[in-house]
Amino acid sequence: xxxxxxxxxxxxxxxxxxxxxxxxxxxxxxxxGRGGRPAPSERITVGLVGYGTIALGWTKNFLGDERVQVxxxxxxxxxxxxxxxxxxxxxxxxxxxxxxxxxxxQAQRKPAKTCSTYIDFREMMDKEDLDVVxxxxxxxxxxxxxxxxxxxxxxxYGQKPLSLTIAEGRLMADEVKKSGVTWQTGSQQRSDIYFxxxxxxxxxxxxxxxxxxxxxxxxxxxxxxxxxDQQTPCPPPKDFDFDLWLGxxxxxxxRPAMLPLNWRHNYHFSGGMITDxxxxxxxxxxxxxxxxxxxxxxxxxxxxxxxxxxxFYNTATAFKxxxxxxxxxxxxxxxxxxxxxxxxxGNAVGGKNFDHTGIFFEGxxxxxxxxxxGKITASSRELLQxxxxxxxxxxxxxxxxxxxFIDCIYSGKPTAAPIETAHRTISIAHLxxxxxxxxxxxxxxxxxxxxxxxxxxxxxxxxxxxxxxxAV
Length: 472
Prior knowledge:
This protein is α/β, with parallel strands linked by helices.
């Protein structure tokens, strides 16, 4: 059996421990795991890459799984209370260390060592005996870290949106496939019963033939940072490696407004609300259409409002476009200001203050279904009460996104949100952004080859150059 450095180090640990206790030192392969898969009795070791708002929430799920041991955290911030986090939303590597150590102390489950901290994630991956990395960084880092971790044989839980560009998403998907590691995208709506129920209803014809889908996303620029108005460049805090935080992104001066989450409204680092929530809701629409490996062939009626390119917050605040599929299905994606779902206004679920977000499926004969987080409703109560029969289509069932990821590390089976699926979803959001930024009314797209037809400028925007010396 070919052994990885990780397998070898794990074997040395088992052998040395056995020898010290007087046990035989012949270790069966089943005790170590084959093909990078841990044995069922082994605890999976996790390293955290980035520790801010999203990582804080999702790390709790890893800590709560007794099959897992969080052993290290890497973040260019030491402790980010003065970077804009407040209360429970503090971040940074020292905060991660305290949270992890406090959890294990309270659970009376002492780790082999305390949680180590690193400024540079590469040092953590090189020094620590890790099975898994949880990547919870700004979007501009996702591709580099995914490729770096996959080439080292680490299983990866990668937060959404998957990538900064379509080319980066393709690179990530190919590298993960080549390495054979388990990947879970943080598109947790795939592990929500209401979203699965909606997709199964559509797939099994409960609405008749669905030809129109409306996807409502939040718009504008949400201010997640109490220093969000402090956009004047200034020196970064002394315990923050800002150059490492920038990484492959273009050179830019630090400003307090960037963190914790307002970087999402700058196009160097993300795609605004289009990619932020598009990664969730477009994903569900694709799932319902059985298009996890495909996408639309045309983007039509593209429109959007952009701030001046010199503004720090320069992603689209309002947007709308129509995705046309070869099947004849049309999917409209728009921000809430377009009020895509008048049927929901005054509805018992939507109410008079309905915000026009979520996914709305239009069927035949007046039948429709709407779903969002924690809510689902349809054109009739009887429709919602129907059951999917055993012989009908049943979609991938997961009730806990993190536990599903850990289960699949042991089993080697696909996760609820594989990387190829996430790449196809976020490509739709990226193409919407490209059309808006170029002022195009339409784009022709080839999902099989992932190329734009007859538009050299749009084709060029499928990728971006990385700041030197960052490269994979």
